[in-house]
Design goal:
Keywords: Dioxygenase, Oxidoreductase
CATH superfamily: Jelly Rolls
Bound molecules: 2,5-dihydroxybenzoic acid
GO molecular function: dioxygenase activity
Number of strands: 23
Protein name: Cupin
Strand order of the largest sheet: 1-19-16-21-14-13
Helix content: 10-25%
Number of domains: 1
Radius of gyration: 23 Å
Domain Cupin type-2: 99-166, 269-334
Pfam families: Cupin_2
Number of helices: 8
Length: 372
């Protein structure tokens, strides 16, 4: 006889109801919901077309001016699967992406926050991001760091609209109840270093002035990571360097540690040659992807996400994925992720998909705004 049968059904019901009223719970029923066999999450994949995002961002150019009407002019990506829980600005449960527009002559004032941020330049030139008083000029394909709690501001000195992506660990910091924000007391932080200083210092070789202190481990001594360097290195890679799941892939690093460029946000550029397709795997970390160049698709948990230049898509945690280049030119996929956090917490784990020669069966094709 099971022990619980010593009580009548009515007594048992009373016991469980009483427990609930006291805000207590029976682990013998609920352990499997807490300590799950595999990651459980409610982050669904999604894809946004560049032409849609661009049109909405450009329209905001008529509606408001950064520094006057708003801190920043940004149209952010809202994952529809997370807004149900009121999670505003969530692309994944940890990561945020927004598309920032600066019109010629405009600037966005200096501030700092406990979120880490990265920028990835989509369109335009002759705008800079200044980090702690050092200007880094931004060109298409460049990645710029604004590490957590560094003072940063943006200014556009060029003649055409300037678009870039902001990537921040909004969800992570919110979940950890660790968000702090502070505007700088003036519009601009004092410019202290020569322009592009850290990028020049570390661009081919690595140097410091005799009396300059050694680069600290944190934050990275480099703020601007140039696309032409990434492209050069990807082009030097040989077939032996191909990662079965990510193709030709390069991670951006902090040269002082050899670890990720930002200590919490991982950044990666992948190249896929014409016809190249990768095998499926899944990992604990989640990512947001931006298609810098090319056409193709990514299969995520059996759903096909077709993309072209400029598009963005969400890779949820623990979801099988594989990438295909269907065009005749090289594909460049930029992505940022929460892998550094998962690794620091010793939570990162990945699993190869072994069935069907490593390729998923495609069960459906995603159409933006209908498959929510
Ligand atoms: O440019 O500093 O998209 O603080 C969101 C928050 C951009 C920025 C965003 C920010 C910024």
């Amino acid at each position: 006889m099971a022990k619980q049968e010593v009580l009548t059904q009515e007594e048992l019901d009373q016991y469980y109801e009483g427990m609930k009223k006291e805000h207590l719970g029976p682990l013998w029923y609920d352990l499997g919901h807490m300590v799950t066999k595999e990651p459980v999450h409610d982050v669904k994949p999604y894809l946004w077309k560049w032409e849609t995002i661009r049109a909405y961002a450009l329209k905001a150019g008529d509606l408001l001016e950064p520094g006057k009407d708003a801190e920043r002019r940004v149209v952010y990506l809202q994952n529809p699967s997370l807004i149900e829980r009121g999670l505003i600005g969530y692309g994944t449960h940890t990561l945020y992406a927004g598309i920032q527009l600066l019109m010629p002559g405009e600037s966005a004032p200096s501030h700092h926050h406990s979120q880490s941020a990265i920028r990835f330049v989509i369109e335009g030139e002759q705008a800079y991001t200044a980090v702690n008083g050092e200007k880094t000029y931004m060109e298409r394909g460049d990645m710029i760091l604004t590490p957590a709690w560094t003072w940063h501001e943006h200014k556009h000195e060029g003649t055409e609209p300037m678009f870039w992506m902001d990537g921040l660990d909004v969800g992570l910091v919110r979940t950890l109840a660790a968000s702090f924000f502070e505007p700088y007391e003036e519009e601009s932080y004092p410019m202290e270093a020569p322009e592009n200083y850290s990028t020049q210092q570390f661009s081919m070789g690595a140097f410091k002035k005799l009396n300059e202190p050694a680069a600290p481990d944190y934050p990275s001594p480099i703020f601007g990571y140039k696309f032409n360097r990434v492209k050069y290195l990807l082009d030097q890679m040989t077939e032996g360097d191909i990662d079965p799941f990510d193709g030709y892939a390069i991670e951006y690093i902090n040269p002082a540690t050899g670890g990720p460029a930002d200590s919490r946000i991982g950044t990666m550029m992948q190249k896929l040659t014409s016809g190249q397709y990768t095998k499926a795997h899944r990992h604990v970390h989640s990512a947001i992807y931006h298609v810098l160049e090319g056409t193709g698709y990514t299969v995520i948990d059996g759903q096909k996400f077709e993309w072209e230049k400029g598009d963005f898509f969400i890779l949820p945690p623990w979801s099988r994925h594989e990438h295909v280049n269907t065009g005749s030119d090289d594909v460049y996929l930029f992505s940022f992720n929460d892998k550094p956090v998962m690794e620091k917490l010793e939570l990162e784990f990945s699993e190869e998909y072994k069935e069907n020669d490593g390729h998923q069966r495609i069960e459906s094709t995603f159409v933006p705004n209908t498959d929510v």
